[in-house]
Structures are given as C-alpha cells and as structure tokens.
Design a protein that fits this description.
single chain; 392 residues; alpha/beta; Aspartate Aminotransferase, domain 1; 42% helix; globular
C-alpha cells in the first residue's frame, strides 16, 4: 500500500481526547478538556431553535449570513475601534479550528516559515506542516511565561511568512502585554509578515484587563487576520461557529479555502450568534465576572491542598505546579495518578510543547458548575490526605 500523508499518519490522539477517555473510564470529573458544563444563554438557544423550525434550512451564503457578518463588524468597532466592512472583511466558519485551517492553507506556501509561540494549542503544528510551512518556535515557560525579546527577534527572517499567536493564550492564561504585542508588530512590519491571531478568549479576560487585538497596532490592519469564537463567547462550544476578520485582500483567498473545506455553517446557528453578539455590556461583564469567581474558587481550593497555582489573567484554565505532593516525577505521571486514583482529570502542560518540555505543571479547567469544582476539590483532598497518611 502507498503511504498516507505523513503529517497525519500515526499522529497521536489529541491530549484532550486522551484525558477525556481516561476520565470516562475511571468515572472521573473531567477538568481536562476546556468546555463549560452548562449551556449558554437560553434566549440565544431559543432563536436558534425557532430559526430551525421557521427555516430556511438550505445553503446560506458562503461568506456567512449578512446579519452575522454585520454583527461581527459592529462588534469590532464597539470593542476595539476597528472599522470593518462586513461585506468583504468578515467570514463565518464552522468553528475557530476551521478558521485557523483556512487561514494557514491560504496564506502559507511550501517552504514558508511560520513563527509559533509555544506552548501551542495542538492543531497549530500539524496545520502548518500540512500547508508545507516550516514552524519556527519561540518558547514561553512557567511560572512567568515571559516572551524573550532576543528569542522572538531571532525567530523572524526574510523567510517568515506569518506569525501565529494565541492571545489570550491557552494553556498559559497569559494576556500578552502591549509591549509584547508591539514588538511582534514591529517584526511583522520589518519582515513583511502576516499575523494570524487566534483570539477566541477575547471576552474571557479578568481583573479589569481588556483584550487588545494585534490588528489595532500601527501598520497591522492590512496584514492581520483575527479569529473569534461564538463557542467561547457564549458557552456553546458544540455549535462550532467561528468568524474571521481581516483585510479584503487576505479574506479573498481565505474564503476560497473555506469554500473547499466546509463551504458554510448552519444558518439557524448563525442567526442566533448574530443576536448574541449584539448583547449589551452587562452580558460580557457578567461572563468575565462569573468565570473569574470560578477561577478564584478553584485556585483557593488548590492552593489549600498544596498546589502551586500560577496567575491566571484570562481563559478557562489554571496552571499548577505539583512538587511535593507525591503525584509522580512528570506531569504525565501526575495526571495519570489523579485521574485513576483521585477521580479528577487534568492535562499535562508538556503536551503543549515539542521536545524538552517543562514537566512540572498540570492544567485544570475551571469553567464548571460550583458543585463540580467543589466535588473535584473534595476528591483531591481525600486522595492527597490518604496518600500522606500511607507514606507517614
């Protein structure tokens, strides 16, 4: 038999799926995969349901329903002061992962270098490699997640076609500073590189911080595409509705990639998301406030148990050191111990790196009901207490 594509042949199953399977097999609370355990606003779901009954349920426009593209354009101006043409500068996709694939496949040619900041969300590397791109990695590491200026500058060259940045960042919960973003913008201009910005956690930012898109920096409007997610913004991850905002010259080839990937996205979901995006500030403030309270609830509990909880500025995730808790030498061993013996699933942070990854940190997801968070903490407490008593 002739070989299949080497990018995907034999590739490991995503760590999220692996830990979710282990959680199911061990009847564990799944704090590994990043999705809420309650559905999003009922009024948004009601609009989707009614639109499904009322129809039409045929192909919507390839670029997306006009009302959703208009809503995305208006949100860009409302939140970030970006004036966007909804007709030529917004594309609706079947989720943010499809959006990433469309952007990479249309902007990156074989041999082009793409700067990636690791730890990486797990689809980035195979998508770049499938496009024939050459990944060039810049590393940030716990506990401070500092982006080194010299390492960043060294990653760019005349071969650089694009930088792919996740801000706010999964799994680090890092919000890139204006200074860091400014340095990235300077390098993009210097080397005439595009910026592909995965900003799905744009509204999940805490403690009075505000997200600032790289697109708002000088000289970046015409070389940046930014990706948003209704799944994250409205706690409806199963809907898989994403959107890309970018200059028409870049959106045109990206739309062609979309045309040959999914072509379109369910119209009833698009209609409901258009309604949701227009919600007033109280919704967005409430979303961030509710998640920050859950973050604090889990962080306080984990710290009391002896975990070293790192700062969390955004997203769904807490990164924790586990030194001294007797969970094992590596983060993979610690996660296996917790899911099998404590009944709580987490994710090893090393899974988001390539070789020579830091192995002393694990990630917990806190976008869960308070009762679930409390039960997970109680299970961890029982397990760690029993482990200490056994070793005494």
């Amino acid at each position: 038999m002739k070989p299949t594509n080497p990018v995907f042949t034999g590739i490991q199953t995503t760590v999220f799926e692996t830990m979710s399977r282990l959680a199911m097999a061990n009847n564990a609370i799944n704090l590994g995969q990043g999705f809420p355990d309650v559905d999003g606003p009922e009024d948004i779901r009601e609009i989707a349901a009614q639109a499904l009954i009322d129809g039409p349920n045929q192909y919507p426009p390839m670029l997306g329903l006009p009302e959703l593209r208009q809503a995305v354009a208006e949100a860009n101006e409302r939140f970030y002061g970006l004036k966007i043409d909804p007709q030529s500068e917004v594309l609706v996709t079947s989720g943010a992962t499809e959006a990433l694939s469309d952007c990479i496949m249309s902007l990156v040619s074989p041999g082009d270098e793409v700067v990636l900041i690791e730890p990486l969300y797990d689809c980035y590397l195979p998508l770049v490699e499938r496009a024939g791109g050459v990944p060039v990695r810049v590393r940030v590491t716990p506990p401070h997640w500092h982006l080194d200026d010299d390492a960043l500058a060294a990653a760019f060259s005349n071969k650089t076609k694009a930088v792919l940045i996740n801000n706010p960042m999964n799994p680090t919960a890092k919000v890139f500073s204006d200074a860091e973003l400014g340095r990235i913008a300077d390098l993009c201009r210097q080397y005439d590189a595009y910026a592909i910005c995965d900003e799905v956690y744009e509204h999940l930012v805490f403690d009075g911080r505000k997200h600032r898109p790289l697109m708002t920096f000088d000289g970046m409007r015409e070389r940046t595409v930014r990706i948003g997610s209704a799944g994250k913004t409205f706690s409806l991850t199963g809907w898989k509705v994403g959107y890309i905002t970018g200059p028409a010259a870049l959106l045109d080839p990206i739309a062609k990639a979309h045309q040959w990937t999914t072509f379109t996205t369910p119209p009833n979901l698009q209609k409901a998301v258009a309604y949701g995006i227009a919600k007033d500030d109280s919704y967005y403030d409430g979303l961030a406030g509710d998640l920050s309270r859950k973050r604090d609830r889990m962080a306080k509990g984990l710290e009391a148990l002896g975990f070293d909880v790192l700062p969390c500025a955004a997203t769904y995730f807490l990164t924790c050191g586990f030194s001294g808790l007797g969970l094992g030498v590596s983060d993979v061993e610690a996660c296996e111990t917790l899911v099998k013996h404590a009944g709580v699933a987490a994710v090893p942070v090393s899974a988001f790196y390539g070789s020579d990854a830091p192995t002393g940190f694990i990630r917990f997801c806190f976008c869960k009901q308070d009762t679930v968070i409390d039960e997970a903490l109680e299970r961890l407490d029982r397990f760690l207490t029993a482990a200490r008593a056994e070793s005494a």
